[in-house]
Hints:
heterodimer; A: 328 residues; MetI-like fold; 69% helix; 1% strand; flat; B: 301 residues; mainly alpha; 12 helices; 0% strand
Amino acid sequence: MSTVATPSAVGSVPPEGSGKHILAAPRPRYGEKVVLGLLWLCAAISVVTTVGIIVVLFTEAVALFGIPGVSIVEFFTDTAWRPFTDPGSDNFRIGVLPLLNSTLLVTAIALAIAIPLGLATAIYLSEYARPRVRRTVKPFLELLAGVPTVVLGYFALTFMTPLLRSLFGIERVPIFNAMSAGIVVGILVVPTIASISEDSMSAVPRALREGAYGLGSARRHVALKIVFPAALSGIVASIILAFGRAVGETLIVSLAAGNLPPAELPATNPFQQVQTMTAYITQAVGGESARGSVTFQSIFAVGALLFVLTFLVNLIALRIVRRFREEY
Amino acid sequence: MVSTSTPTRERVDQSFRAPVGDTIRERFTQFVLLIATCVALVVLVTLLVDIVRDGASGLSLNFLTQYTSRIAANSGIRAGLTGTLSLMFLVALLTFPLGVGAALYLEEFAPRNLWTRLLETNINNLAGVPSIVYGLLGLSVFVYVLGFGRSLITGALTLTLLVLPVVIVASREAFRAVPREIRDGGLALGATPLQVAVRQTLPAAVPSILTGMILSLSRAIGETAPILVAGAVFSRRADNAPWHLSESYTAIPIQIFDFVKRPQEEFQIGVASAAIIVLMALLLVMNSAAIIIRNRYARNR
Lengths: 328, 301
């Protein structure tokens, strides 16, 4: 950097004490500065994107509450979501809680599946599997993580739902239900939990394991009582990231979980039709409603809530990972 | 677990003699962990088998060359296929210079200060933003504020913003893997840092960058939510092309979403799964290409 910026002349006698400039370029290279500026701009696009997301979501969301008959208090406290009629009519209710409840229900099912499976996979790969097994299993996990979510949505609706219906009875399980979507979202985030947890378990110093083995511990005790606690922050971070991913998942839930916000809160029955925040967004954009309408602006209000939720979650996860890195 | 409650004396003995009961518990633990590991893989295999079983019969050359029709047997994904290929081309065109430029700046030139740390944190955070949020950004900024409408360029720009953080992270890793000596050699011969970056570091990093680019592109073309929100249409009876920037557009994942949502089973199962096979085949080709590039250049290094 300094060689670009220092215009001291080669050949002239350098002044006393500034000997490091003797090899500097004879004149400043303005062209290079322009290129560096362009590179800086490329990097700055990411900041523009973030700022853009925040500004767009919040200005469009605020516009929703400027529409007569729509109140921000009702948005956060009302327990019914019927935004498609005229604001002011009796049927119009715009409380986001049913959508939030649906999202959390699907996410809870997903994590109930993904945490045990993901952690077991991580422990197996890091502590038990031979290197060859690990080398074979990891690409398959990456493959699973790379399957487009619309494909998993198809799988949930045409495979998982019929399976659940034959297991639990057609009367109990409707075609669209939170369980089917939740299970498939859970499978989707298994690789997230497994790979990040496995990384943090592999980062646990060998000496800790050898100390435990030296004291006569069995392998399962080393895995569960030495490695697992030592890698706990990475494991927690992986679960938080999986939570964020499950909350933001769109295609699986809008294909398999349905488009009916639950009428009674809190909705805890996994075999009921729900409508998550993301599913609402895909349903509402399908109508191509005009900008300024309740439907259009409500998409952004829901999106803003989704963004805040996942952003906070990711920030926490990043912080935990960073602290964990400093330990060793 | 049970053995922890046994007296200390016995635990010491266990370490030497490994009693039969403990071996069984150890085996059992290992077995349970192995089964849990296999669950995800079994689901993956089930998924692939299920799709091939449902969709293989619907695949034909006509399926690729015909537009969507009201009759399932005559339906094809020509519009989606051309749309996906156009999006891929445009996203690659936009992402490559922007992503590599940003990575080059962050890895080779950025001073270690607060602003750089902010940039890095920001890029990491962006990677965790749900893809549907990028769709909302595209819907507001590209469709309305900039007035591009629900057109191909809106879709391409939205997907570009989505994959840019991934490309930047992958490209930075590629630059980091270039040996220090290559840079030092260039600098010692009197090249400026920029000349070293462009003529030494960049060429050495290109194979890894390409691998990262292809993998990010395969993520982009599999995405449905962002372009669904940013105005992709379900059916279109015309081809998409990269130069038809202001025309409406569709893509294979969007068409799959549409097929699955239809009430007729021939579409929901037959046509949808045939389209899924085409999409997965495309992804497979891209991922294989990425792996081949990675392996070929890893050996040369």
